[in-house]
Amino acid sequence: MDTLKSILLVEDDVKDIELTTTALSKHNLANKIMVARDGVEALDYLYRREQFAEYPIGDPVVILLDLKMPRMDGIQFIQHLKTDNMFKLIPIVVLTSSREDRDLLECYKYGVNAYIVKPVKFKEFVDAVEHIGIFWAILNEVPLTDSFK
Q: How many domains, in total, are found in the chain?
């Protein structure tokens, strides 16, 4: 069985997308890194609708999620995803610059698996993404989501 899986990155900042995908690719931590620019696009990807209708079926092993995004922010996305039996078991790691207690509490209230404040230094950011990728994409065991649908 192949241990490398896909990762869904939900992020609207171009620099953070580039840094995150570079860090994950550099360490070969995922077969595929899918990028969605906000919560709406991420749901379209997961439900395989709109521009993602022809994509092959398959859930990401982890979702790396920013909070502050247009159209549908990260907390709204979490609320939606965690109430859907098809996707509620997919781990969500919040990767945000928000240090607000309210955001932290809301995220855990709705079932995120981890909340990480983005480091501002490049090397710290790359190291954080590498560690996230190693744990969630390589080491963490997840149940087959098909058995819960």
A: 1
